[in-house]
Amino acid sequence: MRQMNKWMWIVGSPALIAGCVITDDPLTSKTPSEPLALTAGVRVAIEGILSYGAVVFAENPTTLMEANDFHGYEIDGKAGGNITITMNGSSCGAPDTLVDLFGPEDAAGNRAFLIENDDANLGPCTLDARIANFVLPATGTYLIVATSFLQAGGNGHYKLQVTCNNNACVDPAAPTFAASQISQAAIDAGGFTAAQLFDIGDFTFEHIFTVPEGLGNALLAAPANNTPRPNFRPFPNNVHFAAFGAPEAQSCVSCHNDGGDDGAGDLNHNIFQIGDGINRASGVPRNPPPLLGSGLRQRIGEEMTAELQGQLAVGQAQADWFVINVTVALSSKTRNFGSVIAKPDGTVDFTNINKGIDTDLVVKPFGWKGREATIRRFIEGGFRVHFGMQTAVQVTKQCPNVNLLGTGACPDPDGDGVVNEITEGLLSAEAVYMGLLETPARVPAPTAAAQLRVTQGEALFNQVNCQACHTQNMTINNPIHVEPGDFGGAGITLNLATDTKDPHPAFDGTPMTVEIWSDFRRHDMGVEDCDSKPFNQIGACFFMTPPLWGIRNTAPYLHDGRAATLLDSILLHGGGDDVNSVNAFKALSADDQSKIVEFMNSLGRQEDKDAARVDLSGFRIEQTGSLLQKFLPAGTLVPHGGFLIVGRNATQAQFEANYGVVLGPTVRYVNGGNAFPIIDGGETFTLFDTQSVLVDGQSIAQPVGGLRTNARVRCDLAAPLAASWSSVATSNAAASPGRGPLPTGQNRICVTEVADSVNTAFEYVEIFVE
Fold first, then answer.
1. DSSP characters over 378-399
2. Would you state the torsion angle of the CA atoms of residues 26, 30, 34, 37, taken in this order, to the nearest 10 degrees?
3. In 3D, which of 399, 422, 205 has the Cα closest to residue 292?
4. SS3 319
5. Closest to 606 in 3D by CA, of 455, 475, 501
6. Quick one: which of 83, 169, 159 has its CA closest to 122?
7. For residues 760 and 700, what is the distance between their CA atoms, to the nearest angstrom?
8. N or C: which end of the chain has fewer CB within 10 A?
9. Which residues pair with 639 in a beta bridge?
């Protein structure tokens, strides 16, 4: 996360108004007067952190450039460094490459546009792009945006490389992959805090892996391909060979950036597991899952496992003592896992166990099939199959293993000349990073009416019994998790109640309630949703119930991304354990079905809550009649559909009492401190953004002597027009703070009310954010 959003930047430009896009503005152009303008409507998908000399390969499936794609790469640089950025299409003009460079973020999170190149006239393709010999003006983290001419895409891939031309580009304070290869012994000895390990894991999650670091393999035959390192698969490049994998990516974040930091992946980031390395039909398709809240998922699974195994242990002790068969009912956290029979000879009859769990009674929350119990093993498998980066732990414990690790000699079974590609300590750091990620959050609806529909949708969700599998709440009795070493080391102890990044559930000594919407069991999804074959011991039709928390922005849905919308994701259930619930859903009216979808759409994340608010910090309201102005304070966030009110000299409570209103959660109130507004007659009001670009105004003027309430009736009419306003004599009854014109659907920000008052303390000006 590196203290910034990895998937969108708002960059200062005249095209930006408080997160609202002005239509018809060019996204890119070919002249210095029209550089790339990143507005709130431009989504930059961050692909990772580049190091100098690193190559993003065109054979890497994540470099597919489609229409309207903007791929972002961060690079740490030092003032005075001389760099060259080269972007080549995999075939000439497909894509027609275009590359832009933006400077480090300022205190407000904005980046300055620096330079753009479209056609560098490079041989043999004149359409390839290059920014050559650019001198970095400051030390910090720069943003490279790789896109295509007019965002036409071309459905081709690209190669990207950044080089340093004067050996003076590297910021010595910036993290590196080499420095991240820490030892487990240092962690065991207390040499790292949880926060330090989180930062190391964070960097590694975004790092673009390179061939010298061990990316890929150098094997000449199966289970690998037979091409030069890193030995990507033949097109379509994302089909795994059995358990060995691909590689098919160069960074974690490139496939987990949909919907926000550590999110899901789009359909183009699907992979095909346990295949033949060539044909997609040979594998099983998988869409990248979102990762937030992983530590809490792991801890819930640990407690459930301990409880289930404890129940069996009691039954076995009874069977041994009384020399009888003992039937043991298995349940944990209100979820039923069937029953087993413990026998006096020490064997166990698992005939009646719930298919949602294996006979080891270990709850495995991770992977679409529920294959891994711990974040550590989940990550280890990801390093191997996605990047060809093998952990020292797995090589030590499992080499030789041709199908899993390759045909090379131990300790380098992938034959690339690199050993200890991922140290045990780095594996721990990555597990800590994922384990301490924040949890998703509910996103309030913009209006009371919309929130009522969400509430009704949740009741309907339960009514049709979706919660039988998507259980709303799970509890954690003890938030302490020990991330251990793999060879007996002490590891590091984490307190999920305090170490987890915000937001996260509260813990007051009683069980922590986690709103997760999963029962932590596998279910038969029916033949319509089956894989083409089993995954190891797990049946082809059985899948772990995925948590619905954060589902709002993780399209496409289901294990293979076949569902484009939330409604599709429901309707494509229905042939297995969920048949009754889906039939009940289908029996609902279309409006009631929509309410359930609206409820599901409220299950988002903190970025969604923030994005639902428009940041007016630093905006300026200018009062022309008295030549006064008010700069809005930092943190002035107003939700879409909400209002900002600046009152002259009253607290919010005093203001509400005077006008007999309660300003709801969609209204932000600012006390003007008896300095703004001052309405005596003749005043108009105009709103400007942080760069003094006109947002709205000027309003119609107060008459001589004031004492009028001017209220906007049409925000889609120019503010100076009388037809845009109503004007009545001032009174508390005539004023309507927090209530304004109907939205136009254009995401406008407009001045909507100017109210004088007999008691000057209660004069106010109001801004509406559509």
1. HHHHHIIIII---BHHHHHHH-
2. 60
3. 205
4. helix
5. 501
6. 159
7. 20
8. N
9. 613
Q: How many Cβ atoms are within 10 Å of 175's Cβ, its own excluded?
A: 18
**CA-CA distance, 696 to 692, in Å (whole number)?**
11
Using pLDDT thresholds of 50, 70 and 90, give the confidence band for residue 64. Answer: very high
CA distance 613 to 607: 10
Alpha-carbon distance 71 to 87, whole Å?
A: 12
Cα–Cα distance, 254 to 46 (Å, whole number): 7
Q: In what order do the strands lie in the sheet with 284-286?
A: 239-241, 271-275, 284-286
Measured CA to CA, the distance from residue 692 to residue 618 in angstroms comes to 10
Q: What percent of the chain has pLDDT over 70?
A: 93
Confidence (pLDDT) at 436: 98
Which two three-digit tokens encode residue 671? 């006390």
Residues pairing with 557 in the sheet: 563
C-alpha closest to that of 474 among 428, 431, 505, 433 = 505
| Closest by Cα among 515, 508, 728, 539 to 605 | 515
Mean pLDDT of 233-238: 88
DSSP 483-531: E--SSS---EEEETTTTSPSS----SSSPEEEE----S-EEE--GGG--
**Structure token pair of residue 762:** 């209660």
How far is residue 669's CA from residue 655's CA, in Å, rounded to a whole number? 9
Amino acid residing at 628 = L
Question: 3-state DSSP call for residue 704?
Answer: strand
Contact (CB, 8 A) for 457 and 595: yes
User: Token pair of 113, please?
Assistant: 């546009």
Query: Can you give the pLDDT at residue 20?
Result: 28
pLDDT at 18: 25
Q: Which residue has the tokens 């409604």?
A: 567
What is the mean pLDDT of the segment spanning 682-687?
Answer: 93
Under a CB-based contact definition with an 8 Å cutoff, are residues 762 and 648 in contact?
yes
CA 212 centroid distance within chain: 30
675 three-class SS: coil
* Alpha-helical runs (H) found in 268-385: 294-322, 375-382
Q: How far is CA 659 from CA 298, 655, 742, in A?
A: 51, 6, 22
Q: DSSP code of 447?
A: S
What type of residue sits at position 270?
Answer: N
| Whole-angstrom distance, CA of residue 461 vs CA of residue 469 | 11
Q: What is the CA radius of gyration of the chain?
A: 29
Q: Residue holding tokens 């995999």? A: 90
- The answer to whether 238 touches 61, Cβ cutoff 8 Å, is yes
